[in-house]
Write a structure and sequence with these properties.
By secondary structure, the protein is α+β, with helices and mostly antiparallel strands. It has 1 helix and 4 strands, in the order αββββ. It has one domain: Nuclear Transport Factor 2, Chain: A, CATH 3.10.450.
Length: 56
């Protein structure tokens, strides 16, 4: 998980308040986006690719 959070941080996401593994391939992260808004991210657990972003 630390590598995943580092990758998100490099993309401008910060203050991850919730990280939940949904399956072996999907992680849900609630964090503050680059625009300062709270967002819910669905991330590929293997690659760190953001699959979907929703406002929280």
């Amino acid at each position: 998980m630390p590598a995943l959070l580092d990758k998100l941080s490099a993309q401008g996401y910060r203050d991850a308040r919730s990280v939940e593994r949904k399956s072996d391939r999907l992680v849900e992260v609630k964090a503050t986006g680059p625009d300062g808004q709270r967002q819910e991210l669905y991330v590929d657990a293997r690659t760190g690719e953001i699959l979907k972003v929703e406002r929280d």
